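Quick start: load a record and inspect it. Here is MFS transporter:
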Amino acid sequence: MGVVPLGFRTIAAAAWRGWGVLLFPLGWGIAHFAGMVYNIAQVSYRQIVTRPELMGRTAAAVRWVVRGTLPIGGVLGGALGTLIGVRPALWPAFGGSWAAGWFVFFSPLRHMRDVPRPEALAG
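Running the structure step on this input writes:
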């Protein structure tokens, strides 16, 4: 999964000792369900709008960008967790996920109802 959805970070950061720890598996389930929906939608869209001869390059570029940033996030998250603690370090992760959601909300994709065909994009 390329993106860890908002639900996991929110509920994981809000989980507390005792029965509140049950919020963690709830967040995990929400994250994986949302990630599955996201991945199906973005791969389907990418396959529709990409010409067949560029499909491999496009998939490689997306994987490079998405998975190439994971080590950076891991190092930053580890450093922040060491400095301020693991639970408080989840809140900035939540804020970053929230900001990414607003980026998509204000993008032109939100108003798109029909997926353009590759021929229409080339002309």
